[in-house]
Amino acid sequence: MEIEFTLNGKVTYAEIKDDTSLFDLLRAKGCYSVKCGCETENCGLCTVLVDGKSVLSCSMLAARVDDKDVVTLEGVQKEAEEFGMYLAGEGAEQCGFCSPGLIMNVLAMEKELNQPEEDAVREYLAGNLCRCSGYMGQMRAIRKYLARGGEAR
Length: 153
Description:
Layout: E1 2-7, E2 10-15, H1 22-28, E3 47-50, E4 53-56, E5 69-71, H2 77-89, H3 99-112, H4 118-124, H5 136-146
Parallel strand pairs: 1-5
Antiparallel strand pairs: 1-2, 3-4, 3-5
């Protein structure tokens, strides 16, 4: 089956099998920021944006992105770098393996929720696992990032 979608701002075509996951398609297209740690929707490493909403690419069929807009970390480098500075400033970057999924979810959350309270942030990011940190540094970085003086984008 052939699909057409926008990947990081660029119209993209792909010939896929019916059972191709979005994760596998994105990796084949060179989006190496998308990681897979569990293949069971439990870690958040494979988070990407589809039409502006965060989705877990390991459990989504690639066929579902036909005529949709898909964004990976490669497509939001400026925003990711800005948030990454907050993570580093709080000592929360650790090994960085989980950072792409976390960053994608934070960027989606910023657009979706207006000035979320800490409980709402925790709930939104509940599926993002990090084996290196205790999450406190990440939460400090997220709070500072969201309060940096701008409206949700």
